[in-house]
Structures are given as structure tokens and as C-alpha cells.
């Protein structure tokens, strides 16, 4: 039987504990502190760290109960070592170290971003090699060439300013919608016309494509929405929130999907993985499926529940790392708030 891997995630506002064997998901327990941050319009790091501390043991217990295992059954512990909020990461890394030491099993500090991609293995089995990946989270937006998800991930392009999720969150605030903005915009957009307003598509002009073919920019879009809303208010008209939300969402999804498919074509990648919180967006999933089908690219998308932060994705990546026989992280493992996506596994 394949090893039982426990995954711990605490990089932002979700305390996640997952249990995975190979590519089989056994448990995915998540406790979120999102409601504690909502009134501030964004995550408050100290509040998140304290919430992780309080949620860690109950979430761990729940994961074991759900999977019908005990901690003594665990063969390896994987934990998000970055990127993320420094204090929040420390809670997870501290808990993982204590567990690994007490259970006498190896400890693997892994990259949160690569875990968002590796989670695709839990739906549809082992990932083909190589493949492309579009990573769209609250803090990152990147196009990746995944030679091997456990050991060789290469950055093809990334955002030069705001991340896609950040653009959703900032635009939601502008429209008076609640935090987190992604789900709120997507709900508002359902009643809107995506063609109502022609918002800009960042870094898609012929000149930009020369230097930034696989890069993204969303800050111009955010400014364009702000200007449009202000002009509307100045003229005394009510802001058509649904149309603005739908047109904004369409602009983001259009650029993301176009560049992702282009990257697959340019690098001969036959499969594209989608990962990160924004991959929960229905329009993104729909448009990406359409454009991948047209281009003959197979698309792997995680089930909705596994799109936003969770421990199962960390366990899924940990299981891949264990399967390759890679060396565990040392006892000096810490959190690295700006861990680069190419560092899948932290050695120290
Ligand atoms: O990956 P994630 O859960 O946390 C980070 O690692 O950052 O991503 C969170 C981001 C937030 O910006 C949130 O607004 C966005 O994912 N998000 C969405 C949707 N659900 C979450 N964006 C668009 N549409 C959604 N349905
Ligand atoms: Zn994330």
C-alpha cells in the first residue's frame, strides 16, 4: 500500500489538514477564519495566526476521524513552507515539525503554489509529464511549465503587478461587494452582460506580446473599472454593478485563458492544469475548457472544494515528493513568505 501522507496548510486564512494515499484523497478538513477578516476587507495577519493556533488540533482530529485513521498510521508529514504570511506559516511549520518528530516520520516543507497545481492529481490520477499549469490565486498569477510537479517546475510568465485574485478582491471593494471579492463578483456577474463594457486586456498588444507574451497585468484593468464607476457616479446614474462585474470578469478570464493556451501551444504541452483560488470561478473554468478543446489541449481542473486553500493539496504534493524518493526537509525548516514557485521542496 502507498504511504499515508498528512498535509498541513496555514499560509493565509484557512487551516487545512488533508490525508492522501498516492492520488487518493482520504480527508480534507478545513477551518476558515475568513469571517473574522471580512470587516477589515482583507486578511489581518495576526488574527489569522491566532486562528490557526486555535484550529490546528481540532482540524487535525477531524481529518483523522474523516479518514478513519489514527496519527500512528501516518507515514510522512508535508507542510506549506511558503509563500504566505510569515506568522501564519510558522504555526503550520511548527505543528508539522512537532508531529513528524513525535511520530518519527519524515517531514517535507513544500511550496503552496505547486501544491495548488499538484492537487489536480486527486481528480483523475497521476499527472502527465510534462504539462502546463495556470496558477491563479490571491497573491500569484503564473504560467508554469511543469516538467515534474515534485521536482522541476519552470516559470514561463507571471503578473507584473496585481494577481488575478487581488484584482477580483480590489474590484469587489470598489463595487461595494463583500470580501473575498472573487465569489462576490462571480455571483454579481451572473445577472450581467459580459459585453456591456469593453475593459482593457493587459499585455495583449502586439508590442507587449514581444516582451511579455506569457506575463499578465491587472492593475490597468482595476484602474479602468474605478474610472468607469466614478464617471458613472459623477453623471448621477446608478452603477450597473452586474454589468461591471460581468465585463470585468470577462476581461480577466479572456486574458488568462488566451495566454495559457498560447503557452501550451508554444511549448508543445498537451495537458494544462488549473490551480489556485480563482480557479473556482465558473466563467474561467468554462472559457478555459472551450479554448483548450479548440486547441486540442487536455484540461485538468480540481473539484471546486479543492480550488481554494486546503490541506489535501499539500498532502497531494507531499505524496508525489515521497513517491519520487526525494530527501526530507531538515529540522531547521522554517517558513519563507516569498518562496519562489520553482522551489517545490525546501531542503533545509
Ligand atoms: O488560492 P487562494 O485560496 O489563496 C491564496 O493562496 O491566495 O486564493 C484566494 C483568491 C481570493 O483572491 C479570492 O477572491 C479568489 O481566490 N477566489 C475567486 C473565486 N473564489 C475565490 N476568484 C474568482 N472567482 C471565484 N469564484
Ligand atoms: Zn492558495
| Largest sheet properties | 6 strands, mixed
Q: What letter string, H or E per element, gives the SSE order?
A: EEEHHEHEHEEEHHHHHEHEHE
Count of helix runs: 11
pLDDT < 50 runs, ≥5 residues: none
Classified in CATH, the superfamily of the largest domain is: ATPase, nucleotide binding domain
Supply the helix-strand structural class.
Answer: alpha/beta
- Helix coverage percent of residues? 40-55%
Binding site for substrate: 135-139, 169, 182, 281
Organism: Pseudokineococcus marinus
Pfam families: TsaD
Domain Gcp-like: 25-315
Could you explain how this protein is built, in words?
This is tRNA N6-adenosine threonylcarbamoyltransferase. Fe cation binds at residues 112, 116, 309. Substrate binds at residues 135-139, 169, 182, 281. Its EC number is 2.3.1.234. One of its GO terms (molecular function) is tRNA N(6)-L-threonylcarbamoyladenine synthase activity. With 348 residues, this protein is of the alpha/beta class. The protein has two domains: 4-122 and 306-346, Nucleotidyltransferase, domain 5, CATH 3.30.420; 131-301, ATPase, nucleotide binding domain (Nucleotidyltransferase, domain 5, 2-Layer Sandwich). Helix content is 43%, strand content 19%. The protein is built from eleven helices and eleven strands. A six-stranded mixed sheet has the order 3-2-1-4-5-11, with helices on both faces. Strands 8-7-6-9-10 form a five-stranded mixed sheet, with helices on both faces. Helix 5 packs antiparallel against helix 9. It starts with a strand and ends with a strand. The site of zinc ion has 6 residues, from helix 4.
Amino acid at each position: 500500500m502507498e504511504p499515508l501522507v498528512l498535509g498541513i496548510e496555514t499560509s493565509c486564512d484557512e487551516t487545512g489538514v488533508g490525508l492522501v494515499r498516492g492520488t487518493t484523497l482520504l480527508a480534507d478538513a478545513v477551518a476558515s477564519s475568513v469571517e473574522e477578516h471580512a470587516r477589515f476587507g482583507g486578511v489581518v495577519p495576526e488574527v489569522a495566526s491566532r486562528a490557526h493556533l486555535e484550529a490546528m488540533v481540532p482540524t487535525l482530529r477531524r481529518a483523522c476521524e474523516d479518514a478513519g485513521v489514527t496519527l500512528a498510521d501516518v507515514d510522512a508529514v508535508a507542510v506549506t513552507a511558503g509563500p504566505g504570511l510569515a506568522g501564519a506559516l510558522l504555526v503550520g511549520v511548527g505543528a508539522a515539525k512537532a508531529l513528524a518528530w513525535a511520530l518519527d516520520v519524515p517531514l517535507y516543507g513544500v511550496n503552496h503554489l505547486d501544491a495548488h497545481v499538484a492537487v489536480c492529481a486527486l481528480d483523475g490520477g497521476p499527472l502527465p509529464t510534462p504539462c502546463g499549469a495556470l496558477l491563479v490565486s490571491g497573491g500569484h498569477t503564473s504560467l508554469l511549465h511543469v516538467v515534474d510537479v515534485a521536482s522541476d517546475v519552470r516559470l514561463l510568465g507571471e503578473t507584473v503587478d496585481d494577481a488575478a485574485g487581488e484584482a477580483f478582491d480590489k474590484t469587489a471593494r470598489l463595487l461595494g461587494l463583500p470580501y473575498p471579492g472573487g465569489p462576490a463578483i462571480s455571483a454579481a456577474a451572473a445577472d450581467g452582460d459580459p459585453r456591456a463594457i469593453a475593459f482593457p486586456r493587459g499585455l495583449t498588444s502586439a508590442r507587449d506580446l514581444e516582451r511579455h507574451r506569457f506575463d499578465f497585468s491587472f492593475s490597468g484593468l482595476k484602474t479602468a473599472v474605478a474610472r468607469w464607476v466614478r464617471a458613472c457616479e459623477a453623471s448621477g446614474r446608478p452603477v450597473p454593478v452586474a454589468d461591471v462585474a460581468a465585463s470585468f470578469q470577462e476581461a480577466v478570464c479572456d486574458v488568462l485563458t488566451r495566454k495559457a493556451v498560447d503557452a501550451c501551444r508554444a511549448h508543445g504541452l498537451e495537458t494544462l492544469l488549473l490551480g489556485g483560488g480563482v480557479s473556482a470561478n465558473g466563467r474561467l473554468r468554462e472559457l478555459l475548457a472551450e479554448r483548450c478543446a479548440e486547441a486540442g489541449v487536455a484540461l485538468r481542473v480540481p473539484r471546486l472544494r479543492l480550488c481554494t486553500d486546503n490541506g489535501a493539496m499539500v498532502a497531494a504534493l507531499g505524496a508525489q515528493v515521497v513517491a519520487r524518493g526525494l530527501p526530507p526537509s531538515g529540522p531547521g525548516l522554517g517558513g519563507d513568505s516569498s518562496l519562489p514557485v520553482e522551489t517545490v521542496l525546501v531542503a533545509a
